[in-house]
Amino acid sequence: MLRNSRSVTRLDILDWLKDPAARFPSRRHADLTEDGVTVRAVAAGLGVSRRVAGSHLVVLARLGMLRTRRIRHRTYYRRDEVRIAEVARMFEKGW
What is the radius of gyration, based on Cα positions, of the chain? Predict the structure, then answer.
C-alpha cells in the first residue's frame, strides 16, 4: 500500500503518543500520559514548524483520534484509544 508523507507523519504521531513519556520530555504543569503533549513537543520531534505540527494534530483531533485538553495557555493532545480501536475494526471488516 502506498502512503504519502502526511499519512506517515500522522501515523508517527499516533505511534509516539502510545508512550509519550518515552518520546517527549516531561512537563512541569502537565502529565504526558494523562494530559498529552503540546504542539511544540510534536514539532520538535518531527523537525518541523509548530504550524505544520499543529495542522497534523488538528486533523487527527477532528477525526477523533486525539483528545485535547487546555492547561493554562496550551493545548495538549493525547490518543483516544476507544476511537482508534473503532477505526481499526472498521478497516479489519473491509470498511
Answer: 13
Element (H, E) at 53: helix 50-62
Helix, strand, coil share of the chain (percent; to 5):
50, 15, 35
What is this structure's pTM? Answer: 0.83
* 3-state DSSP assignment of residue 33: coil
Residue 48 CA: distances (Å) to CA of 22, 61, 94: 20, 19, 34
The set of cell numbers assigned to 51 is: 504550524
Measure the N-to-C terminal CA separation of the chain; round to a whole number of Å: 16
SS3 (DSSP) at 79: strand
Query: Could you read off the pLDDT of 2-33 as tens digits, one per residue?
Result: 455 666 789 999 999 999 989 888 877 778 88
**DSSP character for 37?**
B
